[in-house]
Amino acid sequence: MISKNNKHPTLCIFANFFIDNLERLDRMKNSFLSFKDLSPNEWRVNIRGRYKKEAGEFLASELGDVLKLKFIETKRGWFEDTYSLMKDVKTEFIFFWVEDHLCLVDPGSLWDVIKEMK
User: Fold this and answer.
1) How far apart are CA 55 and CA 39, in angstroms?
2) For residues 96 and 13, what is the distance between their CA atoms, to the nearest angstrom?
3) I need a surface site. Which of 13, 38, 102, 114 has the fewest CB within 10 A?
4) Predicted model pTM
5) Given this model, what pLDDT does residue 89 score?
6) How far apart (Å, rounded) are the C-alpha atoms in residues 54 and 52?
7) Collapsing DSSP states into helix, strand and coil, what is residue 8?
8) How confident is the model over 21-78, as pLDDT tens digits?
9) How far apart, in whole angstroms, are the C-alpha atoms of residue 18 and residue 97?
10) Sheet arrangement for strand 93-96
């Protein structure tokens, strides 16, 4: 999904979370709400832990079809599980989402940085 328009690069948001308590679930929700208006081409999220279903339902209700949601937790480890989720990404950029970090700038500023990187 390489952008033909040089002004707007393509972007995938990626996350591989472990949501094992309600505090982590709330932090993930707040983090998501802080930058959801970035409107990337796709979201790829893997969720592990006790509250994975609740976290997945929240993201699915917010994102709809642009979300590729998985609940992978094999014995091969985080890296291998992540690779299986990401091996066919075709966007120019991947944003690594950490579930308890808040975005303190508007999405337009993030796009400015992504365009500059391109």
Assistant:
1) 19
2) 6
3) 102
4) 0.86
5) 93
6) 6
7) coil
8) 999 999 999 999 999 999 899 999 999 999 999 999 999 999 999 999 999 988 888 8
9) 12
10) 67-70, 42-48, 11-18, 93-96
What's the Rg (C-alpha) of the chain?
14
d(CA 34, CA 106): 9
Q: DSSP string of 59-113?
A: HHHHHGGGEEEE----TT-HHHHHHHHHTT---SEEEE--TTPPP-S-HHHHHHH
Establish how many alpha carbons lie within 13 A of residue 16's alpha carbon, considering only the half-sphere containing its beta carbon: 13
97, 22, 102, 33: which is closest to 55 by C-alpha? 22
The secondary structure element, H or E, covering residue 116 is helix 107-117
Give the tens place of pLDDT for each residue, 63-91: 999 999 999 988 888 888 888 888 899 99
At position 93, the amino acid (one-letter code) is F
**Pairwise CA distance, residues 84 & 70, whole Å:** 10
Beta pairing partners, 105: none
